[in-house]
Amino acid sequence: MRDVVLTDRGPKPIGPYSQAIRANGLLFISGQVALDPKTGEMTEADIRKQTERVLENVRGIVEAAGSKMTHVVKTTVFLKDMNDFGTMNEVYAGYFTSTPPARSTVQVSRLPKDALVEIEVIAML
Q: Domains (ranges, CATH) in the chain?
């Protein structure tokens, strides 16, 4: 079984993809950037604020799909600048306080909307 998840607790997709897909007891959340779901505008160019917005978007989608942040098993973090790793990691740690998920973090040359950070997630339902 495969279901599309679409909620106003996360930004509407800006391309041909779904916010998330529920399939076989797992939740696959597309990479989220720091778009405010209410306005569709990007959060200011500050890694701390963008990471908070991204993780709030992720939380909104996870919960709307019927899961919890404690059920996240894998994340992939894309950073525009690896020098922002420490600040991103500090904010990230506040969202995954016990048994954090497996994670990969990579630096990329550019992200959609010139975001500083993008995070994609896999969670259990």
A: 2-124 (3.30.1330.40)
- The two tokens of residue 116 are 């500083």
Q: Which amino acid is at 101?
A: P
CB within 8 Å of 90: residues ≥ 6 apart: 48
Q: Give the whole-angstrom CA distance, residue 13 versus residue 70.
A: 24
Q: 88-97: per-residue pLDDT in tens?
A: 999 999 999 9
Q: Model pTM? A: 0.96
DSSP 3-state of 84:
helix
Q: Three-class SS of residue 38? A: coil
CA-to-CA distance for 52 and 95, rounded, in angstroms? 9
How many of the other CB atoms lie within 10 Å of CB of 124? 12
**What whole-number distance in Å separates Cα of residue 103 and Cα of residue 57?**
18
Whether residue 1 is predicted with pLDDT greater than 90 in this model: the reply is no
Beta strands in the chain (DSSP E): 2-5, 20-23, 26-32, 72-79, 102-107, 117-124
Q: What percent of the chain has pLDDT over 90?
A: 98
